[in-house]
Amino acid sequence: MALSHDHILNPVTALGYYLTDSGSPLILACEGSFLKVFDAASYKLLSSTEVFNGQTIHGIAVSEVASQENAKNATRVAIWGGSSLLLLDKDDLDRLIDQYANCVTSAVLTVSDWIMVAAIAPHDNSCVLITARNTLLQVFNAEGEQEIKVETLSSPSRSILYSADLVWESPSEILVAAGTVFGEIIMWKFSTTGTSQVLHTFTGHEGSIFGVDISSPALRPDGTVVRLLASCSDDRTIRVWELAESANPGPDSEILVRETGFGESELSNIPEVTDMCIATVMGHASRIWSVKFLIEDSEPARISVLSMGEDTTAQHWSLDYENYHLDTTSSGSKPAVRQPNKSTGYSRLAHLNHVKTFSYHTGKHIWSTAVFRTANSDWTVVTGGADGKISLFNLRIDKAISALPSKVNTEKPAVSASPTDQPPQSLMWDLENILSTLANYTSAVDVVTEEQKPHLAIPEDVISEAAVTGSKSPKIKKPKKPIKDGFNKYAFISENQFLATTHFGRVLIGNIDSTVAWSEAVLPETEHYDLKNYAVIEGFPEIDTVFLAGSKGTILAYQTGKPLKAVGGVGSKVADMFKIYNSRTSSYELLVTTLASPIATLFEVELSNNAAPHLISLASCSLPEKFVVTSAGIVDGLLVLGSRSGLLAIYDVSKSADPIMLWTPAKNNISDAIATILPLPVVGSTSIVLSHFITTERTGYYSIFSFKTSHGQSDVKAVSVSRVHHCKLSFGPLIESAWFHNEELFFYGFKSRSFVVWNESKHYEVSNIDCGGAHRSYAYSPSNSSIGGHFIYTKASKLYLHKQHSPSHATLKQGGHGREIKASAVSPDGVTFATGAEDTAIRIWRHEEATSNLMSDFECLSIIEKHTTGVQHLQWHGSNYLFSSGGNEEFFVWNIRAIPDFGIGVVCEASFLDRSADGDLRIMSYDVMDLPSECESADRLLVSFAFSDSTIRSYAYSKIRGFELLATGRYTSTCLTQLCHIRLVDDRIFFLTAGTDGNITLWKGNISENTVLGTSTSRKHVKISTKKIHQSTIKTLDMTFTPSHFIIATGGDDNALAISIYPFGCLQDSNLSPKIFSLRSAHSAAITGLSIVPEASPTTFSIITSGNDQRVKRWRVRLDLETDSGADHELGLEIEQIGDVFTSVPDVGDLSVLRVGEKKVAKALVVGNGMDVWNLGK
Length: 1178
Fold this sequence. Notes:
The chain is mainly β. The protein is built from three helices and 92 strands.
């Protein structure tokens, strides 16, 4: 009966890198109170062990020295959280990795204060700690004793810290950086002789110090070896300080006292410390939590800083000594001369230059980071976020862009990020440089004509005469600038070959290898000027072909190794061309539209072994009025065209030129150009009744449509098209294309200035390239053999090629919500559940039965992004409807259905439009139930809302008619928090509400079909009774039924668990009172999540509760409801606590019960700042 842990998805609060004696790299990740060990090479989870009982892990330190005399027994890893500490040696780690120990809480040591940071001594078997009051502790095994000893060392101050770092400078000295609440950084050192000394007190930050990092020794440009300190603060700045020995350090165990450390110090009696700040920069969009140095050994050292922040980004900065000047004399170099900063009045020796931003997490906060060197000397960065995701990416410092054959003028180093040994590469060309490498070189500058030649100079005597007479001098006409050629359009011929046209009509071919070899395709003599200043091109990489068209309507084809040739035409200026693959005939087709005619022409591409492909005209399609084609595809043998306004036209081209159907989006849907039409592949399914296809839109959404045709005797009789999935992608808004690779769905498009490639099946970013935005010529070719591709684009009149053969980062562990989860709801199948969070997203998950805890996982099926405020409540109705609510009176109806070979489809079927005048109320709770068929049709639902202004509204909802108001009610001025339907009897709805006053109120309302409210009618819900249950707010509620009673379990702000037993008769007779049983102090904090778990007997059940005390408790309840014992029989209840465990989920927002596996085993799902699953057993 005891609760046992199943799975956790929590913020990753600490990370470490551990190299085993055999050379295997491991990632140590701390999630809640659990330590998880991953293989850094295979990303496999090796072990999951609970470290602390009742405490989240806050930090981890790994010994950098593995070879000691007593290496077997030496401390390898220190883990801390709060005032708890665990030290692990090699044998301990081996047992954890081999899963011989699932829990090590018995070995935990408790110290006197909150631990900020720890460092393992490299020379002995001890560990030193800094606490939140700037106290230094040493933990060690006394010689000849098994018990671990803790010794308090000398400390120069008792400041309150938000951050700290420490390093062993030598076996006898420890260097400490202490970041205080009041914006100071106290640098001090401790000697094993028992003395401590303040070295520096740094001021300048305008907020609390959230992160500090002491560097390893680095070589300065003047040849001096120094340590540096990086700091970050609530003020969003990063500062770098030099830790040179102070000329006037403070006395031992003494610190100078000031009011606060905010701002630059102006006190005359304080040593000059701001001069030691050599660089400062304002970086992130919000608070910065931590900083780390990356130092390359060179002369001088190449120094980088990584910063991690609340904005979920990791940012890389290079520290450049640009203002570092040496006065050189005959006697040698003098110290550096600081250059004053005019705006601040003090000097800076260096600059922090932004190199790259890594954004691989969602929501808020990167809480943890680990950095280590790989075998090829790259830096590998591991980040853990509040979303529970762990990302890895490599840093390689080299030139941002290498140019062939011209050199790019850039001095700043850049970072290439890749989880493999093949970093991305960017190349750049100027057109003139390319043309100069061709055999038939002619300049990219047009020849100057006679009209463009400069006028002759005016004789001096003419100028003098004009000056004497006072008349105006003749104007000198400036010569016209020569016209310069430039890049125009791009298309890929194959994966490693592309075609580029220029404004002068030249056609260039680029062959991609380690570099790019250029050649030029010669246009036929008759088409020499057709591509000048205007060209439309479409690539068919699958058949090594590109089609080109110009202003005259002639269509040209280029195939690798064959001459450019005219292969067809449409008689007028081509507007656009579209590649189509016909899976029925296994052939490619080309759709061509023109500017002069509302006719689109469909060609079949016929391949030839000896010449370029040629085009065979198949059909002509009459386009609807104002229908501008933006995409085309063939689905189930029919031609589907997408338009600029979001319409779809469907043709049976073998029978008619006119569309057989025109699909238009709903009026309330924002529509834009459909950029892609892609049939959904059928994988292993042979009995698919419906076909499906994908469309991408330039609104940031993509859609999946079901497609069904019914045939007559000789042709298609009818077509049914329905949108079954409409999803907003995590990037956008310009989604340009979609494709499948290894059964995974990919997209590319633009977000702000970046070109983004996205894996939708696994929800991760493949590429993010700063190209300047969407308004440019570009082409992208996905790789057939890897997750990557080639991207060509124009920027500042130059051609850029970005080559990437792997994703921008690797995902060690998938994450979830990046903010607090407020609501959860389980579908009737018991394994699919939905969560809604403050990040405004709804996620639909599946949790299947696993053979071991290591195999247990949450599979994210869909991410829904439509709410603009945090999601407050979720509820399923059957398996096909999900309802969600939030602030600003947001309420959405989601239609959920299975899509073969894809997963689930989600469409927003309706939104609540009957808003108040200000539209700023919160929907605190709601309930949904079926309306009986006699009211109207069986698909009508009753939806009742409780609003934050204490009003209640009940609506009839149907897909066709939307929301129709049936009845309203008002409680008091007290805010309602819960609403639940009880039963529907004879067109009367009985329901209950709970509020911040601790009361449960029963209501009834008439919802008969003829009571739908008009503009002048107002039917009211009527109170039946009100009963005081809790001392304050009722936070959570669940209900179960017996044949004679309904039982309500509630949890409140007063920490109490209450069970109220109502006879059904009280719905008709207000004199009947419920029997209330209250268990005071059921938790030590507010109960915020509660679920009833029915058992075999209706009078026996379990209640699972959780709350702000981070405890999950199970209660067994037995009722005595003997109704045959007479009217005087006293109702009885027996309650017993049968489980009590700590959950690592803080700020618990909700609790639900899953039913997993064939036996429908009950599991408790706890959600808040993370998710936790517990086995309930029998």
